[in-house]
Design goal:
The two termini are 14 Å apart. The relative contact order is 0.14. The radius of gyration is 21 Å and the shape is globular. It is 82% helix and 0% strand. Helix 3 crosses helix 7. The chain has 18 helices and no strands. By secondary structure, the chain is mostly helical.
Length: 444
């Protein structure tokens, strides 16, 4: 069975995945843009959104790895033409992960204030962070459910329905943000930062409902949990465990970056919030092509089409560099309007204009790292991803961050350390991939 790896087919998978992938950062970017322009305490509200978004992203990335694990297993069985053997796996995975999410709500809700103190939040920023989190955390199980369903769709080589679901959720969030944050005359009172949190939860609930509908109506995958567990559940759990450790390392990076930015003052964390959310947006944008790599590499690996796998990697390297350069150029063209979109505070804008260029410079490097992240997830080689993240975080990022902080680089130090972190993530994966699969392609 020969698989299609043409640019047209890659785009057919990547562009819908790109649109669905940016749904989560759009929720946070929308919240940031809306609360950053309220009349009172905009800087403190923006800082709170940034802190909570970082913590929620950590939780979502830790448990949201089900998408990659489900996609990898399902796509490999699709490639081997044996889908029936894993049809009941997604429902079992969803059951496990949503149960864990409820336990996390119970465990974190009473301790929200203590959690955000660890991020250096204090006074009004701390109060806003707690208010925002205690509402938005209830969308967490719906987000994980949606992410897991997206994994099943990806394994089936389908990114169209996740795109539709994401458009519905993002559109609802934008509309609800404006209505609930600012209010509508005498009909709906302005709820400020709490309104942004309610808007996100409602949007996440809607996405979960549509995810269930499309999975049941458009695929052979059931949502009813059946036992005994599928024979691949152990492989799934090992993948999740490796990805869990990897994501903890990833979030150590985000924790230190956010903690240092918060320690520099309200204007710095507000600026960091804008910049890191734009970085997340670009990352999820690139993730469209990483998803195509994930989907196709799993199928090719399952079908033992190693020559096509090498050709796919070469094409994706080229596309990744082009996408990264385009993202950097777009950011450069709209450099000043982007800042004004998120804040009117002169100090925040000055800090943003002084440091955002580093985010733009790293975009081609980010593209390469994220593309190969996606491919390794499709191949099911989560151990390699784990080891690379541990190295790039603890051997590269953390020492560089502390060193540059001691030199007084502040935001520049954070973003420069992130750049080296990205380089240390991408290059080892490219080398390892070629070392494994070039010999295999020559032997088949």
């Amino acid at each position: 069975m020969s698989s299609n790896i043409s640019l047209k087919h890659i785009n057919k998978l990547a562009i819908p995945a790109l649109i669905s992938g940016i749904s989560e950062p759009i929720l946070s970017l929308t919240d940031a843009a809306i609360v950053g322009n309220i009349d009172l305490f905009a800087t403190e509200s923006l800082a709170a959104v940034g802190i909570v978004t970082t913590f929620l992203s950590m939780l979502i990335w830790v448990l949201g790895q089900t998408r990659s694990a489900i996609s990898s297993i399902v796509s490999q069985y699709v490639g081997a033409n044996q889908l029936d053997k894993v049809k009941n796996l997604p429902a079992q995975a969803i059951f496990i992960i949503t149960s864990l999410s409820i336990l996390i709500i119970v465990a974190t809700y009473p301790f929200a204030q203590r959690i955000f103190k660890l991020y250096n939040a204090s006074e009004l920023i701390l109060d806003y962070s707690v208010d925002y989190y205690k509402i938005r955390v209830f969308g967490f199980p719906f987000t994980l459910f949606t992410i897991a369903v997206f994994g099943a769709f990806r394994g089936l080589q389908n990114t169209y329905y996740p795109m539709i679901i994401a458009i519905i959720g993002a559109s609802a969030n934008i509309i609800l943000d404006v209505i609930l944050v600012y209010g509508i005359s005498d009909f709906i009172p302005a709820m400020n930062i709490k309104g942004a949190a309610y808007a996100s939860v409602i949007a996440q609930l809607m996405m979960a409902a549509f995810s269930a509908y499309y999975l049941l109506k458009k695929t052979p995958i059931p949502l009813k949990v059946s036992f005994p567990f599928n024979k691949e559940i152990n492989k799934f759990l090992i993948m999740i465990l490796n990805l869990f450790v990897r994501t903890i390392a990833l979030n150590v990076t985000l924790y230190f970056a956010t903690r240092f930015a918060t320690g520099y003052g309200a204007a710095y964390i507000a600026t960091y919030t804008i910049a890191i959310n734009l970085w997340f947006f670009a990352a999820f944008f690139i993730d469209g092509y990483a998803s195509a790599g994930n989907i196709l590499s799993g199928k090719l690996f399952g079908g033992k089409e190693y020559g096509s796998l090498i050709k796919l990697s070469n094409k994706l390297i080229k596309y990744a560099i082009i996408i990264g350069i385009v993202l950097a150029l777009v950011g450069a063209v709209f450099y000043y309007p982007i800042g004004r979109l998120f804040s009117k505070d002169p100090e925040v804008l000055a800090l943003f204009y002084d440091s955002f260029w580093i985010i733009l410079v790293m975009q081609p490097l980010c593209s390469l790292a994220f593309i190969f992240d996606g491919m390794f997830k499709g191949l099911g080689k989560m151990k390699s991803l784990r080891n690379v993240l541990l190295f790039s975080t603890f051997i590269v990022f953390v020492p560089i961050l502390f060193w540059l902080d001691s030199l007084g680089y502040k935001l520049h130090g954070i973003f420069i350390a992130l750049t080296f972190w990205i380089i240390a993530r991408g290059i080892p994966l490219i080398i390892k991939f070629r070392k494994i699969f070039i010999p295999l392609s020559q032997n088949h």
